[in-house]
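User: Okay, second chain of the day. Same drill as before: sequence in, C-alpha cells out.
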Amino acid sequence: MRFETKAIHAGQDPDAATGAVIVPVYQTSTFLQEAIGRHKGYEYSRTANPTRRALEAAIASLEEGRYGLAFSSGVAATTAVFSALQTGDHVIVGDDIYGGTFRLLEKVFKKWVLAVSYADVDTLHSFNSLIRKKTRLIWSETPTNPLLKIIDIKKLSSVAHRHKVKLAVDNTFASPYFQKPLLLGADIVVHSTTKYIAGHSDAIGGAVVTNDEEYYREIKFYQNAAGAVPGIWDSWLVLRGIKTLAVRMRAHQENAVCLARYLSRHPKISRVYYPGLRASPGYALAKKQMQGFGGMISIELKGGRREVEKFFSSLKIFLLAESLGGVESLICYPSQMTHASMTYKERLKRRIRDNLVRISVGIENKFDLKRDLQQALLAV
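Assistant: Same drill. C-alpha cells below.
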C-alpha cells in the first residue's frame, strides 16, 4: 500500500464486534480475564490497550518499521531510548537539538552517570572522532531544531554500525511522510506525535519505532514498567490525525516554500534557515534523502530582542506559542522558549541568538500568511 492508504487503514481494521469503521475508544483501565492466566490479549491498559495498539501499528507501518510503541509525550519516548542504556555508557548527540532533549541529558541522565558528547552536525567526522569504547548510541535530529540542518542518515548509520553503535533519529520535523530513517539505516526512530503526526494541537504523545525485535522487547518492558503511556483519548486523537497526515504535510510544505522564498529576499531578515531553498547548505542532501522539505522555517531578524518583540506583537495570524506541526501557524522565540534550558553560552555556541525566530507554518491560505508577515515586518 502507498503512504496515503496506509495512513487511513494500517492497524485500523473495522471493529470486529460491531463493524465500526473507526477504531473505538476503549476507555477502560482493565479487562475481564476468563480464568487465571487466560485473557483475550489484554489485561490492564498500562500494559496494552486496543486503541493504543492500533496507533502503534499505524505509526510503525508509516515508518516502514516492524514494531511501534506509543508514549505519553515526545520527551517520554526520548527518555525510553536513553533509559535502555547503562550507567557509564557513552552517547553522542548532534549539537543542534531540541532544548528539552538537552535538558533531559544534562539535568537528568548525567546524574545517572551517562556520559554525553555533542558532535558538530555539520561534519560526520565530528561524530566519528567522538566514538569511545563505551559508546552505545548516536542520537540526532534531521532536520535539526531550530536551525533546520540536514544530516546524512545513511552515512551516519555507517559510522555507527562500523563501531557496533545504534543510531536513533528524531524524525519529528520531517514526519514519516517526508523521511523514513529506518530505510536509510537508522536503528531507532523517535517522534513527538504531538506535532505533525497528530497535527491539530489537541493531543500530547510520543513514539518509538524499530525493526530490532530484541530492542523492541526491551523498550516495551520499559514502557510497561515506567508507565509513561498515552491516555486512550490522546491515542485516538493521534490516530485520527494520522489519517490526514499526507494531505497536511503537502499543504505545510507548499506554504513554507512560499514564505521561505519571500523571507529570503526581505531586507529586514539577515538569514533564513529552510532546507527547501536552493541556497541552503542542506538543499542537495534534503532533496536526496527526503521526499519533501517540511513546514518549519527559522529566521534571523536584523536587530535583537527589541525588534523581535515588535515583530511578534504586530502579527495577526501567526500565534506566539511553543510547539509546532499543527494546522495553525505558530511562531516562537527559541532563546526564551524551546531552548531556554540552555545557558546563554550554550545557545551562542549553537547560533541560537537573540534575533532567532522559529516558524511553524500552518495550512492557512499562503497569501494570508505572507501578508501577515509583510505587515509585521513593516512595523519593525
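The radius of gyration is 21 Å.

User: Thanks, on to the next one.
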